[in-house]
Amino acid sequence: MSTKSERPLSPHLQIYKPMLTMTMSIVHRITGTMLFFATILLAWWLVSAAAGPHYFDFVEGLLTSIIGRLILLGCTWALIQHALGGLKHLLWDTGRGYDLDVIEKLAKGSLVLSVVLTVAVWAIAYGVR
What we know:
The protein is mostly helical. It is 75% helix and 0% strand.
């Protein structure tokens, strides 16, 4: 006689309430995917530079438009956020930082620091002092 449990085999989003640490883990995966597309964008820009001045001006015009700059801003944030997430995982690989309060501080810190560093990079790029 088999007794089946009515519970789900594995916890899922309907069981857990969203937490910052869980959200930042998902964001780390999303930023990794964003960086894949950012790399394609970078390759397109480099190919346009090799293709000649007319095509380069076309691509440069797209990338410096309002929408292009918003995309590049998102790419900058994704790169910084993903790098900070990677540093957190590097810390964890050493066996440190597993206390719940430290994990929460790392999640908050990476989110805040990624925004601050993105603003700083863009301020430096556009000569804001």
